[in-house]
Design the sequence.
């Protein structure tokens, strides 16, 4: 695998693929590398798309993982506007959308996810948008201005970040969530209530437990959201944020193991030893929790890029990381460490009304995950406690006058 003659082909030029090709050169891999991506841009950061990009604080150059010249200077054959069509494992070839065929010695699938479609009448109207790429963000940006009303369907982190950006730009925002509370799949009720109240205080309207009948339009363009109770809520644009689906079809069609993504091991290697899968298209082991999961996060993609770069270059495998993620909304920084698998109770440290607190998800006296709002010490030490599986004194953890360093000692 560490042969300098091996040809590494990376399908996907997102955060995972872009990081991997840079790491391969950093780790001394001298063989040929080809990276194909279905967008016109070189690999770029996606988290700012729902925040800095919408507010005009970032552009393509500032978000690029590497300057475009980097790829040529490092003999990385980057091919934009191309996607993979099919994979023939026996021949070790990939057919591409431009009609060409690539041969590989090592294949890395980093094809990410695509947004779920809204299964409602009117979902094909002009002005019904999703947010996955810079092109999507640019289209959305045109609707976030005073006098415009954005309807956001789905109360997850992306939708809430867009709502915060909309309010900062003077647009009206309504969040529609079919569950009784926002963040129902990803956060506890304490955090959901906190963010709902915080957004409401800044002018965001919520339709919780929402039953949407259809999207309505005029002359082919979105004009509103019709509810099952007969109300029509006006909208100049609709952002659909109802989750996504891993782009794993090429792997499944080629006979690789899939289960809510391409199944990989701790090296990010698939059921074919010559093929790896990284990022949102993969279903990976979570060693801290002894199970498989698809974290759908940039940190997870970066960790897997390191795993593959180490495996290809013969380096020791990196130490498994505690999963982590973050969300910025208004002046709030939410930092999340771990996953609340098997937690049997929560503990709130600090007062949510102060805008600075942390929620610990515990299994007995062990921290499974922590959600920290404007509370970096709680996040950092909580992440450490998850990693070392050290039991904590719950009374000391609940007392903000006891430092997190003392809690973790």
Sequence:
């Amino acid at each position: 695998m560490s042969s300098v003659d091996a040809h590494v082909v990376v399908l996907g030029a997102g955060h995972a693929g872009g990081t991997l090709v840079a790491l391969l050169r950093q780790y001394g891999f001298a063989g040929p590398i080809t990276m194909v991506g279905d967008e016109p841009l070189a690999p770029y950061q996606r988290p700012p798309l729902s925040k800095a990009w919408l507010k005009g604080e970032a552009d393509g150059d500032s978000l690029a993982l590497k300057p475009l010249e980097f790829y040529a200077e490092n003999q990385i054959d980057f091919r934009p506007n191309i996607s993979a069509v099919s994979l023939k494992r026996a021949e070790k070839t990939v057919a591409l959308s431009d009609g060409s065929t690539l041969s590989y010695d090592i294949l890395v699938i980093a094809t990410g996810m695509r947004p779920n479609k809204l299964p409602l009448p009117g979902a094909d109207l002009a002005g019904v948008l999703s947010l996955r790429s810079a092109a999507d963000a640019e289209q959305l940006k045109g609707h976030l201005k005073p006098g415009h009303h954005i309807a956001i369907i789905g109360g997850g982190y992306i939708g809430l970040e867009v709502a915060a950006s909309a309010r900062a730009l003077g647009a009206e925002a309504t969040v529609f969530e079919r569950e009784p509370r926002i963040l129902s799949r990803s956060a506890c009720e304490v955090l959901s209530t906190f963010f709902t109240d915080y957004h409401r205080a800044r002018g965001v309207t919520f339709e919780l437990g929402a039953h949407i009948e259809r999207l309505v339009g005029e002359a082919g363009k979105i004009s509103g959201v019709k509810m099952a109770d007969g109300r029509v809520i006006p909208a100049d644009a609709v952002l659909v944020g109802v989750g996504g689906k891993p782009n794993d079809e090429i792997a499944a069609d080629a006979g690789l193991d899939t289960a809510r993504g391409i199944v990989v091991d701790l090296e990010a290697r698939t059921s074919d030893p010559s093929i790896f899968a990284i990022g949102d298209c993969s279903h990976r082991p979570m060693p801290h929790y002894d199970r498989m999961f698809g974290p759908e996060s940039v940190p997870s993609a970066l960790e897997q890029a390191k795993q593959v770069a180490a495996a290809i270059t013969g380096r020791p495998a990196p130490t498994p990381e505690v999963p982590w993620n973050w969300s910025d909304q208004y002046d709030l920084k939410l930092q999340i460490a771990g996953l609340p698998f098997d937690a049997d109770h929560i503990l709130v440290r600090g007062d949510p009304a102060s805008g600075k607190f942390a929620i610990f998800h515990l299994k007995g006296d062990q921290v499974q995950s922590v959600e920290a709002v404007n509370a970096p010490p709680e996040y950092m030490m909580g992440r450490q406690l998850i990693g070392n599986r050290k039991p904590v004194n719950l009374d000391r953890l609940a007392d903000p006058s006891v430092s997190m360093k003392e809690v973790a000692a």
